[in-house]
């Protein structure tokens, strides 16, 4: 019976065959212990000299790291293993012998591992991070599908910036200027006017010359947009979504969280509702914590976000930022026009902002005024203005950065390990 490592609990006491690679091994006299992986998981295979032919035993003892094989044996319970099972081997069929595999069990530098990212993905910890990433994506689709959202795919090539910034990758689109998308949000607003509740999931690009542990040049965003939803309701949707994702990872990735030695007691607290603090109160909190130079009207950096998050044991919303430091499309607070109806969701443990969201301006005249203030001229933005001209409604949306969320939930320090092939300021390889 051919199966996978993930499925072996179903075959306790039975003989199965698995296609696998050798990730590590050790031998002691008349027994060899093979650490196997097959993409679905990791398992130990025990080769006893008395149970196999001399040829098979020598093959097991001499097999090199990352050699591939079909391996056959009986699945037995192993309480010492986190996985809970091991294989007692009866036969091995070598497929390919790997020679001089560069990533050995010894310590390697980060740059070396990043240069060999195509191979580093095979390691147990990197495998665990990618499995958690996959569970976040799976549960994201589940959450939005179960709540009546339609997935819409915005373009990657655009004629203008969504945020009105200069951190854009420029390219030529035949005889026109074009840019790699920073966000699908403007297009998702158009989709929300057609479908009510929508979400996108795709790559975004920021030509930001940053080398911090929180930044990537290319990253993935989940961007819901919702018609007839105002700011308060949007915050509730955000906290319910994040809670849902975290609880799904806790339920379905126990083995992976264990491999990463993640303190899950902190994740277990992540259940809606989340605490909130206004930008005004956040400024005062920072001053009380010794950030005496921060002034009202300034944006928060990583140290500020970390200091604010330390005051809470769940993700925290920072609400109502000054309009002048936020995007042109955010709706002013009707009671206080110098701030906007927005919120950033800050993850605990120093992982920073994982969501930015707001209620959008739905008034045509105010949006025209914002266009003038931000110099948004020309045909590239005309279609967006028309959303306020033909059946405008209150609407809100937000964007969640996948890689920062993966880093936070898995407890990984740097976002470069949370995407299969990271694009950094100094890295376009492999």
UniProtKB/TrEMBL annotation:
Q: Gene3D superfamilies, alphabetically? A: Bira Bifunctional Protein, Domain 2, Nucleic acid-binding proteins
Its localization reads: Cytoplasm
Q: What does it catalyze?
A: tRNA(Asn) + L-asparagine + ATP = L-asparaginyl-tRNA(Asn) + AMP + diphosphate + H(+)
GO BP of this protein: asparaginyl-tRNA aminoacylation
Q: Does the keyword Ligase apply?
A: yes
Q: What is its EC number?
A: 6.1.1.22
The primary location reported for this protein is: cytoplasm
Domain Aminoacyl-transfer RNA synthetases class-II family profile stretches: 130-430
Entry GO terms, CC: cytoplasm
Entry keywords, A to Z: Aminoacyl-tRNA synthetase, ATP-binding, Cytoplasm, Ligase, Nucleotide-binding, Protein biosynthesis
Q: Which SUPFAM superfamilies match?
A: Class II aaRS and biotin synthetases, Nucleic acid-binding proteins
Question: What's the superkingdom here?
Answer: Bacteria
Single GO MF annotation:
asparagine-tRNA ligase activity
Q: Which family is annotated?
A: Belongs to the class-II aminoacyl-tRNA synthetase family.
User: What is annotated about its quaternary structure and interactions?
Assistant: Homodimer.
Listed name of the protein: Asparagine--tRNA ligase
Which organism does this sequence originate in? Ornithinibacillus bavariensis
Q: Which gene encodes it?
A: asnS
């Amino acid at each position: 019976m051919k199966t996978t490592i993930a499925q072996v609990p179903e075959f306790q006491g039975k003989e199965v065959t698995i296609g696998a690679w050798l990730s590590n091994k050790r031998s002691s006299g008349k027994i060899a212990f093979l650490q196997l992986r097959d993409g679905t998981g990791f398992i130990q295979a025990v080769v006893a000299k008395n149970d196999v032919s001399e040829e098979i035993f020598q093959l097991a003892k001499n097999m090199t790291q990352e050699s591939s094989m079909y391996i056959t044996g009986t699945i037995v319970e192993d309480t010492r293993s986190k996985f809970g099972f091991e294989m007692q081997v009866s036969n091995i069929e070598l497929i390919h012998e790997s020679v001089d595999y560069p990533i050995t069990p010894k310590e390697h530098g980060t740059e070396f591992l990043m240069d060999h990212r195509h191979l580093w993905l095979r390691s147990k910890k990197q495998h665990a991070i990618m499995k958690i990433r996959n569970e976040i994506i799976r549960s994201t689709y589940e959450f939005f599908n179960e709540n009546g959202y339609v997935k819409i795919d915005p373009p990657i090539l655009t004629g203008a910036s969504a945020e009105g910034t200069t951190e854009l990758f420029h390219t030529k689109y035949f005889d026109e200027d074009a840019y790699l998308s920073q966000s699908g949000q403007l297009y998702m607003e158009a989709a929300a006017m057609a479908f009510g509740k929508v979400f996108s999931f795709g790559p975004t690009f920021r030509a930001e010359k940053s080398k911090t542990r929180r930044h990537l040049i290319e990253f993935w965003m989940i961007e819901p947009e919702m018609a007839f939803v105002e700011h308060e309701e949007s915050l509730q949707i955000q906290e319910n979504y994040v809670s849902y994702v975290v609880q799904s990872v806790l339920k379905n990735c126990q083995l992976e969280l264990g491999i990463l030695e993640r303190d899950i007691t902190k994740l277990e607290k992540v259940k809606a509702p989340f605490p909130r603090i206004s930008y005004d109160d956040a400024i005062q909190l920072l001053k009380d914590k010794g950030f005496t130079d921060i002034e009202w009207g300034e944006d928060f950096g990583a140290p500020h976000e970390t200091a604010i998050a330390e005051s809470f044991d769940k993700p925290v919303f920072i609400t109502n930022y000054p309009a002048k430091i936020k995007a042109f499309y955010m709706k002013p607070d009707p009671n206080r026009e110098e701030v906007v109806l927005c919120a950033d969701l800050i993850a605990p443990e120093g992982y920073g902002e994982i969501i930015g969201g707001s209620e959008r301006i739905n008034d045509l005249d105010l949006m025209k005024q914002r266009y003038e203030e931000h110099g948004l001229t020309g045909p590239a933005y005309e279609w967006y203005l028309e959303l306020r001209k033909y059946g405008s409604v209150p609407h809100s949306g937000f964007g969640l950065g996948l890689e920062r969320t993966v880093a936070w939930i898995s407890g990984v320090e740097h976002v470069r390990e949370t995407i299969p092939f990271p694009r950094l300021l100094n890295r376009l390889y492999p």
